[in-house]
Each structure stands twice: as structure tokens, then as C-alpha cells.
Amino acid sequence: MNTATGIIKALNSGIKHLAIKRFTLRYPEEKLKFVGDGYQFDPSTGVGIAGYKGRHMLFHDHCTGCQLCSIACEGVAEAIAMVKVPEEYKHNKKAIMPQIDYGKCVFCGLCVDACPFYALYMTNDYELSSFSKEGLIYTPAQLQVKPFVSQDSEIKITNRGATHG
Amino acid sequence: MNNELPPGLALQKVDERIMTLNVGPQHPGSGHMRIIVQIDGDFIVACDPDPGYVHRGEEKMAEYRNYITNIPHLERPVIHDSCNILYPYVLGVEELLGIEVPERAKYIRVIASELNRCVYTMYWLAIYGIFLGHSTMFMWPAGDRELLIDLLEKMTGARVTHAHFVPGGVRNDLPPNFEDVCLRQVNYFEKRIKEYAAIFYDNPILIARTANTGVLSRQDAIRLGTTGSVLRASGVDYDLRKKEPYDVYDELDVHSNVMKEGDSYARSKIPWLDMLESCNIIRQALQKMPKSGSVRVKLKPNPKGKGLDSVYKRVESGRGSLGCYIVSDGKPEPYRLKLSVGSFRNLIALPYLLKGEKLGNMPAVYWSLNYWPVEADR
């Protein structure tokens, strides 16, 4: 093929893209849509439920303080520490619950797989930045709160290219 | 001045024309490694690649963790191709523990690993574009990669480090309505990467830059032990998905792409052809996949191997054959784990390819080897 036609073809394919819609997501104003409420695990079948692996959510009324999540994390990130909680539950005799350090967590979700009591799930919350190292440590009381995550756009494929609509 | 040297000391002869140049480890054209080149004017006379700057001791770390907790850290060497680097490990552990994997899980693994191969190759292609000064080729693949990352995020719950494969299947089933979304986005992705031909692969400027540079002959490719796209660009038809099919690749129609030239152009085109082939494989797998069924075998909390045993498994990753050798002594932890990665095997061809090339051609030859510094160092 001669050089001139090749260069014109290359330029032409670039110029065609002037008419195509913008694909970039404008992040702080628009946010991605996820499937479901986050990664969960069903111990009865041994299979997880698809979802985003973000910040954890702890259900105080299910947690027995068995430390299985902490043991699962030992070989991975050592992010989970068991701490004393003021509340007293009949099923949690030792009154200990997981506290998660997001400076160490790698969001693999193996702690969720380890929990046999439906007490630890993951949520869609991924905006966890903090000004201090202490701010990254989430106590059991903070983990109990269900986060609000705005989700507005997902990928749409149109005749004029893909876009985050 | 006494001209006699002390005993045992020999001075190296200085050649006035030769200059030694360190490219890297901070140079953007080398990645996390150093390439020591000796140049005569503008021509490279000798080259000595110096990897090892990002060695993390993954293999030693694996001896202190059990078969499940090894999963998140073993994918760190290639986070863009994390499903493929876990694949041989998971296949090996399954053989050690004697687990039979459900049929649906095998198909999900094939889809995930093909999507991941495309994600890696798009990242590689973006960097190849910017190495050659083609900034459109940096922007397009970096943007279109998002289509597949979005699919993987829906499937596995994480955008880059998925930790999705486990011995006995996959962590979770596909989300509802995934097949339709996957098919739509993969079809659009295929249409998009076909557009790269006009702007990049058929571009006479790229052809002039990369054709006939760094030619690796068929004999040399076999003798040096290169794998993957480098081997197939030199005319050897060796694709592990076809030659040693693992999981369900024997039920799928896999076409391996071969080119005869063996130059940088062929080595850069083979991964692009592989991406088109990956789209085909994903479509076939979506069609043949059982619509329902189990995706994971329930394991005991600390699975153990049966006495002294060893296993070697390998898969075709984005960079070539990726092998995993596991020795078990009946404990929950592996006794020894060895990763044999494609990047390190392909790096050995670099001194042969760069001899006699111009210094300006170094990035074009180096990155066409499909080399990932972090994976080579492990």
C-alpha cells in the first residue's frame, strides 16, 4: 500500500471520532452504577452473591465474636482486630466484634466467605479516604451504619459510540 | 609513575568509541527495570537487561499461607491479568486436593480469563502506543479497556484485583442479566478494536518504524525458549489453549494466530489478533455455558494435600505460558510454590534482538516482547 493513502486513512479514522460521544465518566459529579448491594456470602450453599467489594457492613445482632473473620485475614492483610464492645448480646458472650483497618484491607472479601452467621457483608461504599491514619480504622459501631452510595450512570451503547449515560 | 600493576589487578581495555548507558530503572521507557546498553554512536553493540527491582518474594510468602489465603497475594505480580496468574495455581491445587469442578464454574473461569487477557493487552497496547509517540493509541485502548473492566467488576466485585478464582470453582455466580450485557459490550469492544487497524496497524508510519526491527528467527525463538506472542510471531504455532487444553478449552473452537516475520511489527500485531480471538471465545462460552448449576465446591476450612505430592500446571496468559509448580507435604500450606512466568522467558531474547539496532528502536523492540517487569521479578 502506498504511504499517502495509508496516512490519509489513519487521519480519516481519527477525524471520524470527532462526532462520537464522550465516553469518559465525570467522576465526582457522576458515579458508576453497581449490581446489587455489595458482595455477600451464603454459608449454607458455600457460594457468594455477586456485588461490589467495598466497605464492610457488620450486623451486631448476628455477630457471635467467633473471630473467624480475623483468622481468615491473618494470612492476607491482618486488617481485622477483635475489640470489646459495650453492648451485650446473649449470643456474643465475650462481647468482641471485628474492627477493620482500611489502611491495610485489600478488599478480597475472604472474611465475608469465612463468616458462618450472616454477620459480615460488603457494601458499595468505596470512598474511604481520610486525612489521618486513625480515620481509616472503622470501629464496630461505624461498620454497623449502612452507607448511602449515589449510583447514577452505567455504560450505554448507542449508534454514536459507547457513553456513560 | 610506575607502569607495573600490582599482582592480581588487571585493567579493562578502554574502547574510545563505546559508551555505556543505563536506561532505567526510573526511565519511562523501561518500566521497573534497567537495561544497560553499550552504544557505538547510534548503534547498540551490547545489551544487558537487569531485572529484579520489584522482587517481592511471592514464592516464599506462599509457603506461609494456606491454599485459600494465598489467592489475594498471588495475583499481585500482574494485577491487570490477575485471573490468568491465578489459573495455574487453582488448577494445581484442585489436582492436589482431588476436587472435581462444576461445569458452569469452568465456563465462568474461561470468560473471566479471556476478559482479563483483553484488559491486560489493552494496557500493554496503550503503553506501546505512547512508547512510539502515538498518543491516540494511548488514549483509545485506555478508554476502551473500561468496557471490559466494567464487566469484570459486575462479575467479580473488583475492578482490578479480583480474587475470583478459588480451588473448586469461582467465588460467586454471575449477576442476573449478565449474559446480555456481556454480549453487547464484547460485540462493541470488538467493533472498536477493529478500528485500531486503520490508525495504528495499517499506518505506514508504524510499519516503517517497527517492520524489520529486532527480527527473531524461528530457530532462535525455539532455542531461546520464548513463549506466547513472541513465539507465535516467529512462525511457531504453539498456543496452550489449543495444544494442552485446560478446563473447557477443548470444547471451544480456538484459533491461534501465527505470523512468520518475527519482527517488532509481528510481535505487536499478534496480541491484537488474540484480542479478536478472545471475543470469539467469550461469545462461544456464553452460548455453551449451562444456564444454571453450582459454581463452587464446598471445601473444608483448611484444605490439606494428600501426603507428599507435586503438580505442575500451565495456562496461556496474556504474555505466554504461565506455569505453577506446587509441592505439598500434607500440610495446609504448600511446601514449595514456583511460578514460571512468560515475561521472564521472553526477556532473554532482548540482548539478541537489540544487537545492531539503533538506540531509538529500543522501546519498540523492548515493549514488543510483551514483558511485564513486576511479573518477571515475582
Give a count of the beta strands of chain B, DSSP E runs of length 2 or more. 8
Overall 3D shape of chain A = elongated
Work out the strand percent of chain A. Answer: 15-25%
Q: Low-confidence segments of chain A, ≥5 residues, pLDDT <50?
A: none
Q: Biggest sheet of chain B: strands, sense, closure?
A: 3 strands, antiparallel
The helix content of chain A is 10-25%
- Low-pLDDT segments of chain B: none
Order of helices and strands of chain A: HEEEHEEHEEHEE
Using the alpha-carbon principal axes, give the shape of chain B.
globular
Q: Helix segment count of chain A?
A: 4
Mean pLDDT of chain A: 85
Distance between the termini of chain B: 51 Å
CATH architecture identity of chain B: Orthogonal Bundle
Helical content of chain B stands at: 40-55%
Strand order of the largest sheet of chain B: 1-2-3
Main-sheet strand order of chain A equals: 4-5-7
What string, H for helix and E for strand, traces the elements of chain B in order?
EEEHHHHHEEHHHHHHHEEEHHHH
Give the largest interface: A-B, 42 and 48 residues
Total tally of structural domains of chain B: 1
Q: What is the fold-level CATH name, i.e. the topology of chain B?
A: Cytochrome-c3 Hydrogenase, chain B
